[in-house]
Fold this sequence. Notes:
This protein has 3 helices and 2 strands, in the order βααβα. By secondary structure, it is α+β, with helices and mostly antiparallel strands. It has a two-stranded antiparallel sheet with strand order 1-2.
Amino acid sequence: MVDKDTVTVRYADPFRLLRDLRGMGETNAVLERRRTPLKRQTLMAAMAKYVDRFADHDGRVPATFEILTMTAWAPAPGQQKPLQPGSAGRSLAQALGADEVSLGEKADPKRG
């Protein structure tokens, strides 16, 4: 099962965004990336352009993150196996004390 949450965070400045990205391990993982540090002048110019382009009316920089949560399980060898479909002794409506409502005719397995 996979769940996805989308969260938008508003940062006071883009350097706080960069710090959080580094903390999440979201740095450049490309093998052929440049190995020398970025020049301060280049970084400052990039941050200024980022603010000009993306800052809100109050100067805060929004960043949207998608958080994926994946859940899985594998049955244990001794775990009870599910029954065959249609083998129940009672219907769900009976178990819930409700009236059973028909959704129409069942398909005839012989007609395909």
